[in-house]
Each structure stands twice: as C-alpha cells, then as structure tokens.
Amino acid sequence: MTTVATSAAQEDGDPKLKDGVLVTDILAVNTISPIASRTDMALALLLEQLVRLIYPERSPQDMHPGQWAALRYINRANLEACTVVGLSRYLGITQGPASRAITALERKGLIAGTRGTIDRRVIRLTVTGTGKLLLQHDPIERLASLVGELDEAQRSVMATVVDQLFSGLSKRANAFTLHEPDINPQ
Q1: Residues 71/62, Cβ–Cβ less than 8 Å
Q2: How far apart are CA 118 and CA 126, in angstroms?
Q3: What is the pLDDT of residues 74-130, one digit of tens each?
Q4: What is the C-alpha end-to-end distance of the chain, expressed in Å?
Q5: Which of 7, 126, 128, 169 is least crowded, fewest Cβ atoms below 10 Å from its Cβ?
Q6: Are 132 and 75 in contact (CB under 8 A)?
Q7: Which domains are delineated in the chain?
Q8: pLDDT value of position 60
Q9: pTM of the model
Q10: Can you say whether residue 78 is alpha, beta or left, with left for phi > 0 and alpha for psi between -120 and 50 degrees?
C-alpha cells in the first residue's frame, strides 16, 4: 500500500487526526492511478472525505445525503417542478431512486404530496412544517458557513475550481448538466 503524505500530516513529523481519522489513512491508496498523480489522488480523496464529513450521522433512521438533497430541492423549487420527474432531473438520477427518497421523506413526515388538478397522475410535493424545522438544522449549512469564512478571492477561486471539477465529472460520466430549479423567492 502506498501512502500519500500531506503537509498537514507532516508539519511536525507526527501524524494528525482529523475527526478521529488518521490523515495518512484518508490518503492511503492501494495503487496510484496511471492517470492521476499521487498528489491529484490525495486531493481527490480529501474532497471525498470532505463530502462525507457533511453528513456525520449514518444510522438507518438518519437522513441520508440523497434525502437531504431531495428535501432541499422540494423546499426551493417551484411547485410545478416539485414532482418525482423534477427531482430526478435535478439530481441526475432515474425516477426509481427519486421515488424511494420521496417515499422515505413522506414516511418521516417531512414532505406531503397532493395530486394535480389537471393531471391526477402527477403528485406535487411540498415540505411540511416538520420538514421546514429539520431544514433549519441542515448539515450542509456547516459547509456553507465555512465557505462564508473564506475571503472573496478564495471563494472566487473555489467557485471556479468546483465548477470546473463538476463540469469535467459530468461530461466524463455522460451525466446531467446542473440546472437550478425554478426557485421560489424567499
């Protein structure tokens, strides 16, 4: 196993713990990709860990990242777009996983569905009072707060880099292109 050491782990020669995880363990890779350099792989693994740290709760009854994304979308999107199809398009997933996320949120009492008046097959989704209360404790807010602590130049560079990474990954995966939902003014 090859371990990629970072300056954070090597500052004083002692390994560092990051939220109880050895930094060098985070950056351990079995093989170095023939495409990515060791440093590139280390950065990619740190990004992956960063995303995981947003959602520390991992028990079956906790909200999963996909459920949080669905709840956020339903809270922000125009009522006409708050459907299984709208959610699946926004998240870039098929309707099956979108439907399962919606069912889980309904079971938890966080969203409710109402049949459309014109097309009774369409169910429009809204966030319940309980869902709105939960959104006040959205774990993504922790990351947004940290981003807000960056100076303007750092945020600008971060926005450019994240946009470039997102574009590159979505093209390679032949996936979706991010589009903002029709946002309700709040």
Answers
A1: no
A2: 18
A3: 999 998 899 999 999 999 899 999 999 999 999 999 999 998 788 888 899 999 999
A4: 51
A5: 7
A6: yes
A7: 1-54 (no CATH), 60-186 (1.10.10.10)
A8: 62
A9: 0.70
A10: beta
User: Residue with structure tokens 């996909």?
Assistant: 66
Beta strands in the chain (DSSP E): 2-3, 17-18, 21-22, 28-29, 111-115, 123-127
What is the distance between the alpha carbons of residues 105 and 116, in angstroms, rounded to a whole number?
A: 19
pLDDT at residue 19, as a whole number: 53
Per-residue pLDDT band at 16 (split at 50, 70, 90): low
* Chain centroid to CA 3: 27
Q: Are 29 and 40 in contact (CB under 8 A)?
A: no
CA distance 96 to 83: 13
Which residue in 79, 68, 72, 66 sits closest to 113, CA to CA? 79
CB 123 within 8 A of CB 83: yes
Which among 177, 173, 144 is positioned nearest to 159, based on CA atoms?
144
